C-alpha cells in the first residue's frame, strides 16, 4: 500500500472514531442519561469551556445585568451543544469521505468531502456529488439516518428537560416564611410550626424531600439543568436548597426525636445531591474556602435554638445540639458554598408574594 493509501485508511479510521465518539456522547446524554467517566467527552468539553467563558463575561458585567446574562446561558447552551455535536459529526464524516474520495464523484479535497458529508447528514440531496459503489452508498444511508436520529433525539429531549425544570421551579414558589425579608432557615421552621406544630414541620420537610428526590434524579440525568436560572428574580434552586437543608440540620440537631423523621431523610437526600455535584460537566473542583465561617455558624444556631425554645419545641441540651449541628453542616457546607460560587447564584432567597397588610386593606 502506497503512502496515499495509508493516509486514506487513517482518515477513514479517524473519521469513524470521531463519529462514533460523538454519537455515543449524544446517546449517553439524551437516551441512557448516564454520566460518563472522563473529562474529554464532547458534552463535558463543551460545557466546561463555554461556561467558564460565559461566567467570566458575566463577572465583568454590571451587577444589575449579571443575572439576566447568566439566565440566557442555559437555553443557549442546548442549541450550542446540538451545533457542537453536528459540527463534530459532519467533520468526522468529512474525513471518512475524504478517505473514500475515489468512491464519490466530484470529491477532490477535504472541503469537497465536508460539503458532501453535510449534504448527506442533513438529507439535502442536491445530486451534484454522487457516491459510487455499494459501500459508499450504504455509508451515505447510515450518515443520513444518523442525522435524522440526532435531530429527533434533541426534539424529543426538550419536553423532558423543560418538564423537570418546571417541577423544580414550582416548588420554589412555596418557600415563603411569611416575612417581607429574605427567607431564612429559622423563618421557614417558625412559619411551618405556626401552621400546625411539629406535624406541619414534618409535612413541609416531606414535600421538600420529594423535591430533592426529583431534582437529584433529573439533574443527575441532565446535569445542564443546574445552569438554568429561576424565572423569578432573587430565587435559585441552590439557594432554596441551602435554606431547607439548614432548616433540616437545625431541626435534627436541636429537636428531640427528630433523628429518624422527615428532617433526617431530607438531610440525607440533600447532602447526597450536593455531593453529586462533582459530576456536573462544568465542575473542575469543589473545594471551597470556609475559613472564618465558624462564628457566623455559631450565631445562626444560637438564634435558631433560642427561637425554637420560645415556641416550646422539646430540645436537646444546647452543647449537645450545637456540636451535632456543626458536624451535620460540615458534611454538605463545602459543596454548597463551592456550587454557589461556581454558578454565581444569589446568596439570599426572596419570595414574591403580596404583603398581608396590603391585602387586608384592599
In short:
By secondary structure, the protein is mainly α.
Give the SSE layout.
Elements: H1 3-32, H2 42-60, H3 63-99, E1 104-105, H4 110-121, E2 130-131, H5 134-172, H6 185-221, H7 237-254, H8 262-275, H9 294-310, H10 318-330, H11 333-343, H12 356-361
Antiparallel strand pairs: 1-2
Folded structure, characterized:
- By secondary structure, the protein is mostly helical.
- It has two domains: 3-155, no CATH class; 173-361, no CATH class.
- The chain is built from twelve helices and two strands, in the order αααβαβαααααααα.
- It has helices spanning 3-32, 42-60, 63-99, 110-121, 134-172, 185-221, 237-254, 262-275, 294-310, 318-330, 333-343, 356-361, and strands at 104-105, 130-131.
- Helix 3 (63-99) packs across helix 4.
- The longest helix has 39 residues, at 134-172.
- The termini are far apart.
